């Protein structure tokens, strides 16, 4: 074994593989043909579609896959609504507790202040009278001026009922101010907690490294408003082509399969193409369909034709070339495809966002 094979990382220069490992920021890579979904494959299971259905935007699915996905989405929406209702009830209970605590605190402060003022005067008068009795026992004041001065310094109320006046309006104002302050502080605390507690479809955006997106719920009311209008969506499109999807909007697809002629002498039972392995073709020009072919679907009947036959036969005559059903311009839907792996054949490059260099 040579020294270089033992110390293949001890070179003074970087190899191409080592250089690519040190890339930072957004990474891009070209996709090959093996990374592309086949045109007749399901967008969910990536296998050949069985009982294929297509949405209004041209995304292809298996019947079983799309039904299961839509049912799962509806179940998740119901569960999210139930969680939001529980959070709303919890928030209402917490708001009620905060309001009651603020009201109790205001009452306690008011009563403590009133009792402190009234009790101190009574306590001072009682202590002064007892001290005066002990110190000046048997002595009487002979100067009226001293009595007047003493009376002017400490005036005892003539009626005991006038020493304490309870103002309900003052207490109500203090309660209202304290409740508003407590509720405002509580709403701020709830908003901070709800950012990491709201159960909805934007969980990846709630991570600490994620940036705020337009439409992201910040409060419980916003989340409830979004969940009220939440509908099932199509999983075939990306974030740039997201759209709603319902079972009634699905369209059945009828591919014309290539089958060898029964009169051909070369066709034997062992070599005959099975239905599962038969390749779709255009019913007009008999061209084999592939990812390099633009495909169009006739919405009323579900037949699929290539772009050339669609532009030359279907659109001018406004009818299907297989079953002669009448078509409108909106009844011709293009089937979505991922590409061929070539630069001009569709999706040929993917990117992955990473952390930029922070030096």
UniProtKB/TrEMBL annotation:
Domain RING-type: 282-324
A molecular-function term among this protein's GO annotations: zinc ion binding
Composition-biased stretches (Gly residues): 117-129
UniProt-annotated stretches for the region Disordered: 117-171, 260-282
Compartment annotation: Nucleus
Keywords on record: Coiled coil, Metal-binding, Nucleus, Zinc, Zinc-finger
Coiled-coil zones: 70-104
One matching Pfam family: Rtf2
Start-end of Low complexity biased regions: 158-171, 260-271
Domain of life: Eukaryota
GO cellular component: nucleus
Family: Belongs to the NOSIP family.
Name by which UniProt lists this protein: RING-type domain-containing protein
């Amino acid at each position: 074994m040579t020294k270089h094979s033992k110390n293949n990382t001890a070179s003074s220069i970087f190899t191409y593989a080592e250089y690519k490992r040190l890339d930072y920021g957004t990474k891009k890579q070209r996709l090959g043909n093996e990374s592309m979904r086949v045109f007749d494959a399901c967008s969910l299971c990536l296998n050949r579609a069985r009982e294929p259905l297509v949405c209004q935007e041209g995304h292809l699915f298996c019947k079983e896959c799309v039904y299961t996905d839509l049912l799962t989405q509806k179940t998740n929406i119901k569960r999210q609504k139930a969680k939001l209702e529980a959070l709303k009830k919890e928030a209402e209970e917490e708001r009620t507790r905060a309001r009651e605590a603020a009201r109790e605190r205001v009452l306690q402060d008011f009563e403590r202040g009133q009792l402190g003022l009234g009790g101190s005067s009574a306590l001072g008068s009682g202590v002064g009278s007892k001290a005066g009795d002990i110190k000046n026992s048997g002595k009487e004041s002979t100067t009226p001026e001293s009595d007047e001065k003493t009376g002017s310094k400490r005036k005892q109320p003539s009626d005991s009922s006038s020493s304490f006046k309870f103002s309900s309006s003052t207490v109500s104002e203090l309660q209202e101010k304290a409740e508003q302050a407590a509720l405002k502080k509580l709403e701020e605390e709830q908003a901070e907690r709800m950012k990491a507690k709201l159960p909805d479809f934007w969980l990846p955006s709630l991570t600490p490294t994620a940036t705020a997106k337009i439409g992201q719920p910040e409060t419980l009311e916003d989340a409830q408003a979004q969940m009220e209008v939440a509908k099932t969506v199509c999983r075939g499109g990306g974030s740039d082509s997201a759209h709603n999807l319902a079972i009634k909007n699905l369209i059945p697809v009828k591919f014309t399969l290539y089958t060898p002629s029964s009169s051909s002498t070369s066709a034997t039972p062992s070599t005959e193409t099975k239905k599962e392995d038969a390749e779709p073709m255009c019913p007009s020009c008999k061209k084999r369909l592939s990812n390099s072919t633009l495909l169009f679907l006739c919405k009323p009947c579900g037949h699929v034709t290539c772009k050339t036959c669609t532009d030359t036969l279907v659109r001018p005559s406004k009818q299907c070339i297989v079953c002669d059903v009448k078509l409108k311009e909106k009844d011709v839907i293009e089937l979505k495809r991922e590409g061929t792996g070539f630069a001009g054949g569709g999706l040929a490059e993917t990117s992955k966002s990473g952390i930029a260099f922070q030096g």
